[in-house]
Amino acid sequence: MDASIVVPLYDEEESLPELCAWIKRVVDANNLSYEIILIDDGSTDDSWKVIEQLIAADPNIKAIKFQRNYGKSAALNEGFKAAKGDVVITMDADLQDSPDEIPQLRRMIIEEGYDLVSGWKKKRYDPVSKTIPTKFFNSVTRNTSGIPLHDFNCGLKAYKKKVVKSIEVYGEMHRYIPVIAKWAGFKKIGEKVVEHRPRKYGTTKFGLERFINGFLDLATITFVSKFGKRPMHFFGLYGTLCFLIGFIMIVYLIVAKFVSAEFALTNRPSFYIALTTMIIGMQLFLAGFIAELISRNSSERNSYLIEKKVGIV
After folding, report:
1. Could you tell me the pTM of the whole model?
2. Which fold has domain 3-227?
3. Which of 37, 232, 294, 305 lies 20 to 30 Å (CA to CA) from residue 64?
């Protein structure tokens, strides 16, 4: 199969028929074999009824329905599991992503050898309250991850099949799929300027809280990607440093006490600062030790991406 188009959705009953018809026109015009996978993320409107009608009319349309709203990451993860195409393309269901981009995105994966191609909505039709925080968010993510993308959160992306089968998307990590892919060893990540269309039906389902959650998730994915399999390297390092700083301060204060009998050890703020620093250091060290024990007992402690095995039975 040439392409799997994965579409997560929540309360998009009005846009679904138009979106599916548009996708079908594009892939048929380019002679592509395809499947459309619609993931209903617990919609409260008649989205599922519309999906059932679409499935009855087109055998290339498949669907997954969640009992409740789990979020876009969960929807994408299930869509990735179900996808069978050589190239997997994701897009939002609100018609702000153009299916006309599908052939070029697929070409970049097949002919140019990219593992992942992310869309860049260079010209946006969003309010300033959304575009300015988005630019700031993308700048921080770009500098933190080292991936030179302008629009990490763009829903229009294309992947090699082995990429989506090798990663897990959870929580609200859909914003960081390029980072997760890079962490998994897929480093050829490209970008394509794509058309961004004004919203035709309904209203956005995301509020300003997504930016706060986004930065928290960035901190999580950065830490996990660097220290997920070796937590002691992080907690042990800073714990040891804190303990040594506190210990040196305590030694200095004790020596000062012996040198000068009038030196009141417990009346000095530095004494309590030193004790606190030592306690924090020990807590960090113990946190790293416990995390290391958990990591070593995890069933995934030696789960690495192996592209090929030769001569192994």
Report:
1. 0.74
2. Spore Coat Polysaccharide Biosynthesis Protein SpsA; Chain A (3.90.550)
3. 305
